[in-house]
Amino acid sequence: MAEETQTRGEAETKARAALLWRCWPDGKKFCPRCRAQKPYALAEGRLRCGACRYTFHDFTGRWLNLSGLSSAQWVDLARAFALDANTREVAQAAGVSYNTAFKALTVLRLAILAQGTDARQLFSPRTGLSDLLSNGKLCHAPESPVGEVPVYGILSQGQRVFVDMVPELSAESVLHFNHNFHLRVARLGHILITDRYKTYDGLVLCGDDRLPYHYLLRHQGTPFAESGSPFWLYARERLRQFKGLSARRFPLYLKELEMRYNRQGEDLLPMFLDALCAPIPTSTIA
Ligand SMILES: [Zn+2]
Fold first, then answer.
1. Helices and strands counted in the chain (H then E)
2. Residue-wise burial string across 232-243, b where 16 or more C-beta atoms lie within 10 A, e elsewhere
3. 212-264 tens-digit pLDDT
4. What whole-number distance in Å separates Cα of residue 113 and Cα of residue 110?
5. Ligand 1 geometric centre to CA of 21 (Å)
6. Distance, CA 234 to ligand 1 centroid (Å)?
7. What is the per-residue pLDDT across 154-209, written as a single tens digit (0 to 9) for each?
8. Global pTM?
């Protein structure tokens, strides 16, 4: 028993070192609020900024701080997720409850999304993603954001895929194109996928019960994305399996799938840990 405790302690020390190194690559710490260098050390690992008096610790203001997981639990969770484990398997690997794992995976998905060049756009009020964060904490937001349902475009370039929000379109525009311009649309639960649109392989959106799905017109044939877009064929099977997929959380899953698709065969763990250790951009916090 004592031996087991020690091993667990060692695992925690090792995991913490791996995360600290990613948070502070050159070991030089600074204040997360005013960025002043050389904070002084207080008891229990806390630090205080000499310039603005802010008290913080090593992970303050970073994604991994949005969950109460220990460093070892974070690393175990991220490793399992890198191997494409589902929430139940991830919970088991990290030794936490299903709900804790679900929340931690939301943090990890947000952190992954924040790494993208389109992060600012995706954290705009349009998607409702920023409502998942409040005062630097993960919070419960209704599953359906208010306002128009955003539309995403799937763009293939060789083996790579880009999934972009198309700001000028909304779910209503897709319904309009379907009705008046015969844009073919297929449905997967609350998700709609269309035929080719301009340079996109297809447009995709996830609405909720407010969207008049019954108005969709059926046109001959299958939309291109349903038959000819390798990314969509890959994403569709996975989206079917996700539990808790809602209009608000849809972009999180979409961007996760884009990343997994583009990095098939790569070890995702280092990228996941880097994402978790990155500072939360202040623009994402309401
Ligand atoms: Zn400061």
1. 10, 10
2. beebbeebeebe
3. 888 888 888 889 888 889 999 999 999 988 866 888 889 999 999 999 999 99
4. 5
5. 21
6. 46
7. 999 989 999 999 999 999 999 999 999 999 999 998 999 999 999 999 999 999 88
8. 0.92
**Could you write out the three-class secondary structure of 21-69?**
HHHCCCCCCECCCCCCECCEECHHHCEECCCCCCEECCCCCEHHHHCCC
Mapped onto helix, strand or coil, the DSSP state of residue 206 is strand
How many angstroms separate the Cα of 205 from the Cα of each of 115, 123, 232?
22, 16, 12
Contacting residues for 124 by C-beta, under 8 A, at least 6 apart: 130
Ligand 1 midpoint to CA 31 (Å): 5
The span from the CA of 15 to the CA of 97, in Å, is 20
Amino acid at 96: V
Handedness of CA 89, 280, 258, 182 (dihedral sign): positive
| Phi/psi at 210 (5° precision) | -75, -15
Q: Within 13 Å, how many C-alpha atoms sit on residue 73's CB side?
A: 16
22 CA from centroid of ligand 1 (Å) = 21
Closest CA to 32 of 13, 52, 18: 52
Tokens representing 235 are 């994403």
Ramachandran class of 84: left when φ > 0, alpha when ψ lies in -120 to 50, beta otherwise: left
Task: Break the chain into its structural domains and give their ranges.
Answer: 2-30+62-115, 129-264
Q: Tell me how far the alpha carbon of residue 66 lies from the centroid of ligand 1, in angstroms.
A: 20
Cα(96)–Cα(101) distance, rounded to whole angstroms? 6
Distance of CA 44 from the midpoint of ligand 1 (Å): 19
Q: What is the DSSP letter of 127?
A: T
The CA 40 to ligand 1 mean position distance, Å, reads 11
Which are the contacts of 203, defined by CB distance < 8 A and separation ≥ 6? 151, 152, 153, 154, 166, 169, 174, 192, 193, 194, 197
